[in-house]
# Entry
Amino acid sequence: MPIIAPSLLAADFLHLGDQCKMLNESEAEWFHLDVMDGRFVPNISFGLPVIEQIRKTTRKILDVHLMIVEPEKYVEAFKNAGADILSVHIEACPHLHRNIEQIKSLGMKVGVAINPHTVTSALSDILHLIDVVNLMSVDPGFGGQKFIEFTLEKIKQLRTVIDERRLNVLIEIDGGVTLENARSIVNAGADVLIAGSTVFKSADPITAIAQLKVIK
Ligand code: DX5
Ligand code: ZN
# Structure
């Protein structure tokens, strides 16, 4: 069964406490938190003070997705804010190996995110060093976009490499995940489904999460 990671980008920010409570009562294992800087991506979301508050509401895993340039400047601050998994974008990191080591040295799990157009083979030399690959299935920056179909092939490619090399790396799919396409995503080999709109725009988020959870 996939791990479900609702993205709070689609939550009602005026009632964030209630939304976190709802997730705590759901079958979601992770909270996915999208941090945007208006430079790496053409949008600004939320940052450290918000994550600090969310941390106080939950013992579930905080999966923090940094869509920012120069993430090394903030890695320690995100650790202090309560991140369990910290993902950086390969496209934003000319010294990716150094970024990975920095995140690990602070005791967090490391994720590397790749945009839809970035080839999966770009990960091959660092794959054994990380815990999670965030495969973007939309262009990062906004919730509520349409799933880009060709990324299904990238899930399969990565699944094959991870299995062949017997690595302990989770594949998470980020963007445009719906109740309709989740089965093909899981069948292609994804371990973690990130879902913003599908969860928070649903009339019944707890049920939407439960429905994603039983997909196989
Ligand atoms: C997009 C973010 C996603 C986004 C997913 O840049 O990384 O995590 O919140 O939202 P949905 O599920 O609505 O596509
Ligand atoms: Zn994300």
